[in-house]
Amino acid sequence: MGRLLAWRLSRQDLEITLFEAGSLAVPAGACWAAAGMISPLSELVHSEQKIYQLGLRSLALWEPWAAELEALVGRPVSFRRAGSIVVAHGRDRAELPMFVRELQSKLPSDSAADVRPLDRAQLQKLEPALESFETGIFLRDEGDIDNRRLLPVLLESLRQQRVTLREHTAVTCERNTIVTEDAQYHFDCVIDCRGLGAKDAINGLRGVRGEVLVVQTNEVQLQRPVRLLHPRYQLYAVPRSDGSTVIGATEIESEDLSPISVRSTMELSSALYSLHPAFAEARIVESRVNCRPATMDNLPTVHCEPGLVRLNGLYRHGYLLAPALAEQVEKIIAQQLSEVA
Amino acid sequence: MATQLSLYGKTFASRLLVGTALYPSPAVMRASVEASAAEIITLSLRRQNPEQQQGKILWDYIRESGCQLLPNTAGCKTPREVIALAEMSREIFATDWLKLEVVGDDYNLQPDPYGLVEAARELIKRGFKVLPYCTDDLVVCRKLLDVGCEVLMPWGAPIGTGQGLLNRYNLQTLRERLPDIPLIVDAGIGAPSQAAEAMELGFDAVLLNTAIAKAQEPVLMARAFKLAVESGRCAFEAGLMTKRQTASPSTPTLDMPFWQQVAPTEP
User: Fold this and answer.
1) What is chain A's pLDDT, residue by residue, as a tens digit (341 residues)?
2) Host domain of residue A239
């Protein structure tokens, strides 16, 4: 969130400093562990209308922003707007109509066409690898972005825009002031996007553990994100342009950052295996664990006062919400700076 | 006014127990618990790495409800796992109440009757107040009572299925054969009418989670279940009428001569 916002603001004639608690190459936040899904429709089943509205706005913004970043830096960020597919395996087939019913009940009537049931032939045509499934659902208005490409591209764009970068620097954020272990820095405005690092400032902020596996195989390749419905878990597989597949994500009410558990590894890998048996021979090349910063209502929070904006609680919706929230904060900052001037 | 629920020496006005998982957010969970008027709430800590207390923020948030906490052992498959987790949850939540779960089948989370009895025996020795989640099998229920459980929680249907009371005969048998034991129908309840049905059968309470947490409006559904459980209990205590084959007018039909009032033919 911080990096995206810094890039947006750097396009204006502003002097910007970005503080990163971890390393710039491998940021400490959930953004690095995420799968980069931008799925306003499928998230609507489990969240409020506000997430859907912000998500649609983000989806619309990602397209031109991704193109602008790619042109600026000359490297791809692999934004894809190919929709997503939802399937359910054998015994869980009853989950599919339930998913559609819940989604339709929350969707505005003019968006009903965004949820399209697929028969076997239609499913095969869209996603040939899902040959063992009889039915599925196509969610048209969804996308994803390769965060492992986007974050380095954003960093490069900040360097090009002459943004001052300070890594391995944990901070506290106050009005007009950033406080580090050994110094204080004064600014016209401070934007606090510290995620779980902002617990000192945001009441009820909690971490929700998420675990993700990355696998590599040449035998089977999905074309777009696929969700596998299950009565208790929300699982998805996201194909990456380098041939890998990211599969996630557990959701555990804990701030535990220890490595992935055997149980989660089995759940995630068996979900992947059930999409296509060839995934059995895929190699697990990485496991990722991080905690999503969430408020008690699981909605994002934007707090602003003169000289300070706090933005937090993006929960499991980082890439879904970031552009829409960045756009809002850009407006807030413009207003604050005009008052300072 | 219906009578109060009495479990392990404590009394409760509400006969609805609710879970705290699967809600869209902790805030919705808390509002739903409030709307349900539940006084006993279950919570799970198996996957939270409880030794490190990393789920503390949410646990504290749940604790603020003021309800009797009923930590569960969901996800445990052996008595040994159960006991380790039970001791940890007693320390964390400062309560010896425990919803005992021993998973016998991973897919439908069916309880393992052998593991249940073994775990319950040891937990009771260690001073826990055990509320076992069990199947509706009379013999298993008796064994659980033999080892010292004072409350039983037979399933209506497998967890999360919303199928209601799948085996009414077994449930009625339990009620008739164990008239003095508090019996709570735990799991499988999908609709308020099913909760009311369990209460009308004379069960002492109902425990559920998914039907509220996964409703489109969980807070409203929590209220629906509150009303249904109250309604079912009042009906049970008031005494339900016996079903009859034909309508029987409650006032004499004076305008009809008796020879035309033909007696109904029994089927």
Assistant:
1) 999 999 999 998 899 999 999 899 888 788 888 999 999 999 998 888 999 999 999 999 999 999 999 999 999 999 999 999 999 987 788 889 888 988 888 888 888 778 999 999 999 999 999 998 999 999 998 999 999 999 999 999 999 999 999 999 999 999 999 999 999 999 999 999 999 999 989 988 999 999 999 999 999 989 999 999 877 677 899 999 888 999 988 888 888 899 999 989 988 998 888 899 899 999 999 999 999 999 999 999 999 999 999 999 999 999 999 999 999 999 999 888 887 76
2) 84-140+206-294
A253 touches B: beta carbon within 8 Å: yes
Taking an 8 Å cut-off on Cβ atoms, the answer to whether B25 and A252 are in contact is no
Query: Which residue among A294, A312, A330 closes a domain?
Result: A294
Name the residue facing B25 among A102, A256, A298 (closest C-beta). A298
Q: Is A266 on the interface with B (CB under 8 A)?
A: no
User: Contact A100/A117 with Cβ under 8 angstroms?
Assistant: yes
ipTM value = 0.77
Q: Which residues of B touch A296 (CB under 8 A)?
A: 25-27, 30, 61
- A297 and B27 within 8 Å at the Cβ level: the answer is yes
Question: What pTM value is reported for the model?
Answer: 0.82
Residues A212 and A334 in one domain: no
Closest alpha carbon to A313 in A61, A81, A57, A47: A47
Rounded Cα distance between B102 and B113, Å, is: 8
Among A102, A253, A258, select the one facing B55 at the smallest CB separation. A253
Residue A193 shares a structural domain with residue A57: yes
How many C-alpha atoms does B128 have within 13 Å on its Cβ side? 32
Q: Is A109 on the interface with B (CB under 8 A)?
A: no
Q: Are residues A229 and A90 in the same domain?
A: yes
User: What gap in Å lies between CA A315 and CA A303, rounded to an integer?
Assistant: 16
CA distance readout (Å), B30 to B25, B59, B67, B68, B222: 9, 12, 11, 14, 11
Residues of B identified as active-site: 99
Q: Do A106 and B216 touch (CB under 8 A)?
A: yes
Q: How would you classify the pairing of strands A143-145 and A79-80?
A: antiparallel
**Contacting residues of A for B27, CB less than 8 Å apart:** 296-298
- CATH code at position A271: 3.30.9.10
Minimum-distance CB partner of A256 among B22, B52, B107: B52
- Closest in B22, B26, B47 to A252, CB measured: B47
Check whether residue A99 and residue A178 sit in a common domain.
no
Residues A266 and A287 in one domain: yes
Nearest CA in chain B to A91: B107
Smallest CA–CA distance from B48 into chain A, residue: A254
Residue A69: give its domain's CATH number: 3.50.50.60
Number of domains making up chain A: 2
In a shared domain, residues A277 and A304: no
Count of helices and strands (H, E) across chain B: 9, 10
Same domain, A112 and A94: yes
Give me the residues of B, 192-231, that contact A with CB < 8 A: 216
A151 and A128 in a common domain: no
The CA distance from A45 to A40, in Å, is: 9
A298 contacts B58? CB cut-off 8 A: no
Alpha-carbon separation of residue A123 from A15, A119, A130, B146 (angstroms): 50, 6, 7, 55
